[in-house]
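Tutorial sheet, problem 5. The two components below are modelled jointly, 815 residues in total.
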Amino acid sequence: MSLTTALNAAISGLQVSARGTQVIADNVANAGTAGYAVRVMTQAPVVLGGKGAGVAMTAVQRQSDPALVAALRDSNGAAASAAPVASFWQDMRSALAQQGAPDALAARLTAFDTALSQAAGRPDSLAALVLTAQTAQDLTRAFHQGQAQIDLARDRADKNLEDDVRSLNTLLSGVADLNRDIQKQLLTSGEANALLDQRQSLIDQIAEFLPVKEVQREFGRSMLLAQDGTILVDREPAQFDFQRRPNPLPGERVELGDLSPVMLGQRALGPNDKLLQGGRLAGLLEVRDVHAPSMQSVLDDIATDLVARFASPIADPTYQPGQFGLFRDPGSATPAAMGPGLAGRISVAPEIRPDNPNALWRLRDGLAATQPGPVGARLGLAGMQAQLNDLRAIGSLGGVARSSFGQMADLATFVATQELRAQSETSMRQVRRDILSDQLAAQGVDTDAQMQKLLLLEKHYSANAKIISTADAMLRTLLEI
Amino acid sequence: MIVTSFSDLSRQNTLAGASRKIKSDMSRLTEEMASGQVQDPAKRLRGDLGRVKLLDHSIARAIVAQENLTLVQNQFDAKLTSVTQISQALTDLAERAIGPDLGVSDARLATISAQFGTAIETIVGALNTRFAGRSLFAGTAVDSPAVVSADMLKSQVGAIIPTGASYWDANDSIDAWFASTAGFGSNGYLGASADPSGLVVVEGFVIQDRLTANDPALKNALAIAVKGAMSMQAATQLGADQRSVILNDMRASLNAAIGALDSVRVGIGNGQARADQAQTQIQARMATEQAARNDIMTADPYETALALQDNAARLEQLFALTARLSRLSLVNFI
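Model answer (structure tokens):
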């Protein structure tokens, strides 16, 4: 080997060490970056004419486990799908059934019932009658609060669906663009790790919206398939569509064409469609089209039952068939004509107002009474209490005959059970995601290991530098002869 | 378990996760320690939140029922006092006014008449008794006196006694007036009918109080007093024998009326006993329900404090471990 060849070999050693240091620096810099795949530089000897001529870097590889990445994506999607449902039931419990909250529906009914008891004990007490009127209004407000929460949840889900579909389309286009960039990069420089990282991040985000499978094609291209085999990205991205319907009304349903499904071409996708199941889009559709309408139906049934209990000659001595009693629906002429969304409309008879004490005798004597009766008559008040205690069944709450308060207790149990079930499902999915995430993170950057490699590179760099210095000294000696 | 052989991010995630879990537990335990209540009763009841809602409702109802019962008990007490006053007034008439054998002179008859007149005022006063602003014997018209004033009563009765009527005719007129709806029913009694429904104290437990001034025993007591005051003048036209007969009749009527009032007092006593019984029942039920609610809602202070201490120790250990692992990096040795 000539001195020049030795010099070249040492220089190649220096270059490889420098490149290795760069790779380590990149790794250490990303030690805290979630989803970053560790880079490992590979090198090989350079052979010229059958003789060694130094070293060359062959590749900088991303150390990524595709099976683990796919499993983590699936679990991310599963967690994202359960989260909106859990959040919906948590909000419903806060609005309707929070233990100890004075504005919970059951607490409001208790307040109304006890005010009625007080008034029945002292029918002549204006304070007791005012309290009865006040608590009746508060009770209707608790229904309105529940309705507002359902409306908000449906509107929010609809808005999130619109945003998510827009983001999904952007991400799918991004993957298609990156496919092209990666292909170009591989053909020109042979390495496209940074772009691969970027594409993995985009696919991870897509997998939160709907579960995807990644298939590797030629020139580093990734093809994305939905669970049912529909191609989402190959050379061109698929386009999803969604029409926002702001503030959906209680009776509006996707089945009736009032609300938009998620569209893929001509295909309408619902929460149970295999393509969406296990992703956030399915979770949002489930909230908007399944859970919120189910809650709406329960709340409306309880409100309808309350109206019916008071539309009776027992609760109101002046009651006429077909009329409303103390509670009514301002949007309907008769109790029989009440439609969906009653929980948002239910109100107290207009003459019964806490700020109108002159008319509160009607609580005792009947809403249609023409003049006040004896102030100590408790018949109407006792009748209202009796109607609250009357056992009646509500189909959406299991059809068991209960007092109005038993129904409220069933409602609290229904909401709390749904919340716990949703929470438990979310926790289970999050735990699985955390385990997989930990496993993936465990394959990330270990700075100790990187420092060990750096020490080796430093040593190699010094050795190569020494060779250059020695070869230089030898050449100088030759030149001095 | 802390994994030390994995990547920095994994180690950081593990430590952060453990710290988050411990801090979340500590926050929950601190709140439970401070409030004495479990933070999430729904979780403890596995979703059956209806149980605690029903208990809360039942307890709230029981509190109001107790208030209502106290009012009812006080009203019964006040009514009993009033009826006892009326009974005492009649007893005084029977024993002091008519009882002693002091002859049947005109002067004596005038004295007796005056004493009956005073008794009218006593009885009217007792019947118009108000408790906590509510008229006790006026039925559902609790804002009105039960009967007209003694003067008004005497004036109305005076108007229906024909001029120059005999003692017996005057008595018959007074009896007829008290028995008639158009007489006492409309012009003497100012109240309304009693509440037919009664007070539902707790489900299935109703307390009735239908005693008004229109009750036959009370009305009769008043009628006797009126008769004694207003017919006695006509008795001066009678002979000594008939006067004695009148006084004997009067004594017998008074004794019968006192007997009837005793029955009324027994009725009130029964009502009081029923209210006491309801009070006891409510208290016992409330105590049971309160205990059941505490079982569900109360966080055991000893267990909570122990868990809190355990968590604090674990957090300290985690901090020590985090600091040590951070120092053990190879970076520090290069």
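Marking note: The first helix of chain B runs from residue 8 to 35. Full credit if you identified this.
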